[in-house]
Design a protein that fits this description.
The complex is a heterodimer. Chain A is an alpha+beta fold. Chain A has 21 helices and 22 strands. The longest helix of chain A is centred in the C-terminal third of the chain and has 36 residues, at 551-586. The chains are: A alpha+beta, B alpha+beta. At the A-B interface, helix 2, helix 4 and helix 9 of A face helix 1 of B.
Chain lengths: 618, 72
C-alpha cells in the first residue's frame, strides 16, 4: 500500500463510520444537512476540487464532475423533499471505495508483473586491487571482465573466461532445467548463477544486453494498442456525453409534461452515477498487460497487445523446418551393421576414431555420438581423401569412412539405406562393415506441437530449403500434410505471400530468426524461437519465444485466446449491466444503490476478472 | 531524440489524457504514456531543449489532471 492509498483508506473508513453514526443521531432540519456534510467533505473533498479544476480548464464531463453533480443533486433533493441524506454521501463513499480498490488492484498487478520480469541486474562486480568492486552495469565497457558469484544475476552478455557453473534461466525461458556453462560458453544477462564463481568478458553494452532488451520490449508492449482497446477508447468518448445528454433530457422533458420534478431529477442523477465507463477503461488495458506479463513468465514475449489479439485469431501457422521443427544440427540418427564381426557399437567406435582429427560437421556429430573416443586404441596414418572420406589405421586394421564413391574406389560392396539423411559408409580392411546415417533430427516436442496446433484449429504448413525427400520424410514423421520444399531464401517470401493470399484469417510464421527475417516481418504475426541471445530475431519478430521448444507456439496461442476471452467477458458484462441499470433507472425501477453497483461493483468485478490473465492456462 | 520519464497518475483514463496533452505540446514529436509501467516516452523535435519542453509538458498535464506528476 502506498502512502496515498493508506491516506485514502483512512478517509473512507472515517467517513463510513461517521455516516453510520449519524443515523443514530436525532437532529432535524438544517443541522442534519450540515452534519451529513462532514463525512461528505472527508471522503469527497478532492473530487469536488477536481471537478472545479476541470470546469476552470474547460474540461467538463470528467467523472469527478459527474460525481459532484450527482451527489450535490442528491443533497439538494434531500433538502427539498426533506428526505434522506445517506444516499448522497454513500454515492461519494462508494465511488471512492471503487477508486481505491482499482488503484490497489493495479498496483498489485504491477508488482506481480515486475516480479515476473525480475531480471534487471542492479550491479556488476569488477575486480580491483582491493577485492571486488560493485559498479553500475551501465558503466562497464565492452571487453571488460566481470565476476559473477553464486546467487547473483549475470548483468551483461558475454563469454565465460574462467570457471564453470550452472545457470538458472527460468526467468528468461521458463525452462527450469539449469544450463551448464564453462570456459568459452556464451552467457546472456538475466540468468542467475547457481553454484560456481565465473568470470565473464563482456561482449555488449548493458543497454544492448539481453536483459535490458527484454525489459524494454515488455514495457513498450502496451503502447501498441489492440483493436479492443481502441474500441473502448472510442466507446468511452461517445458513451459518457451520450449518457449525460440522456440524463439532462430525462431530468427535464418528462417533468415538463407530467410534472414531479423531484422524481425525474433523481432518475437523472442515477444515470450520471452509472455513466462512468471506468470498468471498461481500466479493465481492458489491464487484461492485456496481465496477459503479456503472464506469457513472459513462460518465456513468451509478446511485443504488443495488438499482436496478442492477432495471435488469438491465427488460422494458419507456417513453420520453417530447420531450427524450428528440427534441431538444426546434425546428429547420428541410425547405425546399421552389415557385417557380423562389427556390431553397431563397434562401427561407431571405429568411425569416431578415424574422424578424430577432422573438423567437418559430420566428424563432430560422430564424435558426439561416441563421447569416449579417446581410449587406448591406436590411430595412425590418417589420410583425408577429398570428396571421398577419411582412411586411417586403427589397431592395425585399415578403416575407410566415407561416401559411396569411396566404397566403390576401394572395392567394398556397399548397401544403400532406407533412411533419409547423409549416409556414411564404413569399410574395414576392404570389407564393407555397415553405415551410419546422420541427419538433422526433429525436436522431441515437434510432433506434439503440430498435433496441438491442429487441435486448436490452426492449419500447419512447413517451408524448407531442403530436398523434397528430406522434407517429405520430416513432414510425414510430424504429421504435417502441407509442405513446400527446395525453397531458396528468396523463394520463401514469395511462397509465404502465396499462402497469405489463399488463406482465410490470420497467418503466423514461425522461424528461428536466421535467414528468415523478411518472412517474419511479412507475416500477420511473426514468431521467432530460440531467440535467447539473437538480436536479429528479437528485432524482426512480433512474438519472441525465448527457448526453442515448438510446444510454446500453441501455448502462446492458448494464452492469447484466453486473454481475449476475458476481455470480451468484461466488455459484454460491463456494458450489459450498465445498459440494464440505465433502462431500469429510467423506468424508476433502479435506485441509487443499483447505480452504485453498476458503477463500482462492475468495475471491481471486471478488474478481478482481468487479473486472471496473469495466470497462464495449464 | 527519445527520453523516458517516470510518472505518477491514478487512473488509466487520466494517463490517456496526459498522453494527448503531451502530444499537443510544442517541441514534442510523439509521446506515449504507459499506465501499467508508469512511464512516459517522449520523442522530441530536432534541436529543442528537452528540459524546457518537459516543463511545459508537465504544466499541460497538470492542467487536465491535477493529481498527475512527471518526474523530471
Amino acid at each position: 500500500m502506498t502512502p496515498k492509498q493508506r491516506r485514502n483508506l483512512i478517509r473512507i473508513v472515517t467517513a463510513a463510520a461517521l455516516l453510520i453514526g449519524l443515523n443514530f443521531v436525532d437532529v432535524g432540519g438544517v443541522g442534519k444537512i450540515l452534519l451529513y456534510l462532514v463525512p461528505y467533505a472527508v471522503v469527497g473533498y478532492d473530487i469536488v476540487l477536481k471537478a472545479i479544476h476541470g470546469l476552470k480548464n474547460r474540461r467538463p464531463l470528467d467523472e469527478s464532475l459527474l460525481m459532484t453533480i450527482a451527489t450535490v443533486g442528491a443533497f439538494a433533493l434531500a433538502i427539498h423533499d426533506g428526505g434522506d441524506c445517506n444516499e448522497a454521501v454513500a454515492v461519494m463513499l462508494f465511488y471512492q471505495i471503487g477508486e481505491w480498490f482499482q488503484s490497489y488492484a493495479v498496483g498489485r498487478s504491477r508488482k506481480n508483473i515486475a516480479a515476473l520480469m525480475d531480471i534487471r541486474p542492479d550491479y556488476a562486480n569488477i575486480e580491483s586491487d582491493d577485492g571486488l568492486e560493485q559498479v553500475d552495469p551501465d558503466d562497464v565497457e565492452i571487453g571488460s571482465v566481470i565476476v559473477v558469484q553464486p546467487g547473483e544475476k549475470i548483468p551483461i552478455d558475454g563469454v565465460v573466461v574462467e570457471g564453470s557453473s550452472a545457470l538458472n534461466t527460468v526467468a528468461l525461458t521458463g525452462e527450469s532445467l539449469p544450463r551448464e556453462v564453462g570456459v568459452d560458453s556464451e552467457v546472456v544477462s538475466g540468468c542467475i548463477n547457481l553454484n560456481g564463481v565465473i568470470k565473464i568478458r563482456t561482449t555488449k553494452d548493458f543497454g544492448e544486453s539481453t536483459a535490458s532488451k527484454i525489459l524494454e520490449l515488455v514495457e513498450d508492449a502496451s503502447s501498441r494498442k489492440s483493436k479492443s482497446e481502441d474500441f473502448i477508447a472510442r466507446f468511452a468518448r461517445i458513451y459518457t456525453p451520450a449518457v449525460v445528454i440522456c440524463a439532462a433530457t430525462l431530468a427535464i422533458v418528462p417533468a415538463l409534461i407530467v410534472g414531479d420534478w423531484g422524481t425525474w431529477i433523481y432518475r437523472a442523477l442515477i444515470f450520471l452515477v452509472i455513466s462512468c465507463p471506468c470498468a471498461l477503461v481500466i479493465s481492458i488495458p489491464l487484461s492485456f498487460f496481465a496477459g503479456i506479463g503472464g506469457a513472459s513468465r513462460d518465456g513468451i514475449l509478446i511485443k504488443g497487445s495488438n499482436f496478442l489479439e492477432t495471435l488469438a485469431n491465427v488460422t494458419t501457422v507456417v513453420m520453417d523446418k530447420t531450427g524450428t521443427l528440427t534441431r538444426g544440427s546434425f546428429e547420428v540418427d541410425a547405425v546399421h551393421s552389415k557385417h557380423l564381426d562389427f556390431d553397431e557399437e563397434k562401427l561407431l567406435h571405429l568411425a569416431a576414431h578415424v574422424e578424430r582429427y577432422s573438423t567437418h560437421p559430420i566428424a563432430n556429430s560422430l564424435r558426439k555420438a561416441y563421447p569416449n573416443e579417446r581410449d587406448d586404441c591406436t590411430v595412425s596414418d590418417v589420410e583425408e581423401i577429398a570428396g571421398r572420406g577419411i582412411k586411417a589405421t586403427v589397431n592395425g586394421q585399415i578403416v575407410c569412412v566415407g561416401n559411396e564413391k569411396f566404397m566403390d574406389d576401394i572395392g567394398a560392396e556397399w548397401k544403400s539405406c532406407y533412411k533419409v539423411g547423409t549416409v556414411i559408409h564404413v569399410a574395414v580392411d576392404g570389407l564393407y562393415a555397415g553405415h551410419i546415417v546422420i541427419s538433422d533430427t526433429v525436436k522431441k516436442n515437434s510432433a506434439a506441437a503440430v498435433r496441438e496446433l491442429n487441435a486448436s484449429g490452426a492449419n500447419v504448413v512447413m517451408l524448407t530449403g531442403d530436398s523434397e525427400q528430406i522434407a517429405a520424410n520430416v513432414a510425414g514423421e510430424l504429421g504435417i500434410a502441407d509442405y513446400r520444399s527446395e525453397l531458396l531464401p528468396a523463394d520463401k517470401v514469395t511462397e509465404f505471400e502465396r499462402i497469405l493470399a489463399t488463406s482465410k484469417g490470420t497467418t503466423a510464421f514461425v522461424g528461428d530468426g536466421i535467414n528468415d527475417a523478411p518472412v517474419l516481418s511479412r507475416a500477420d504475426v511473426g514468431i521467432a524461437m530460440g531467440a535467447l541471445g539473437s538480436d536479429a530475431a528479437i528485432e524482426a519478430a512480433d512474438v519472441v519465444l525465448m527457448d526453442d521448444d515448438p510446444l510454446k507456439i500453441s501455448r502462446a496461442i492458448k494464452i492469447s485466446r484466453r486473454c481475449l476471452a476475458i476481455v470480451k467477458q468484461n466488455i459484454f458484462f460491463a456494458i450489459g449491466v450498465k445498459i440494464l441499470c440505465l433502462i431500469l433507472g429510467a423506468g424508476g425501477l433502479a435506485n441509487m444503490w443499483a447505480a452504485i453497483f453498476a458503477d463500482v461493483g462492475v468495475m471491481i468485478l471486471a478488474v478481478l476478472n482481468a487479473i486472471r490473465c496473469l495466470v497462464a492456462p495449464k | 531524440m527519445k527520453k523516458t520519464y517516470k510518472i505518477d497518475v491514478d487512473c488509466a483514463n487520466c494517463a490517456n489524457l496526459m498522453e494527448t496533452e503531451a502530444k499537443k505540446t510544442a517541441g514534442v514529436k510523439d509521446a506515449v504514456v504507459n499506465f501499467m509501467t508508469l512511464k512516459m516516452k517522449v520523442e522530441f523535435d530536432n534541436g529543442v531543449d528537452a528540459k524546457e519542453v518537459m516543463g511545459r509538458v508537465r504544466d499541460n498535464c497538470k492542467r487536465v489532471e491535477k493529481d498527475c506528476e512527471i518526474f523530471l
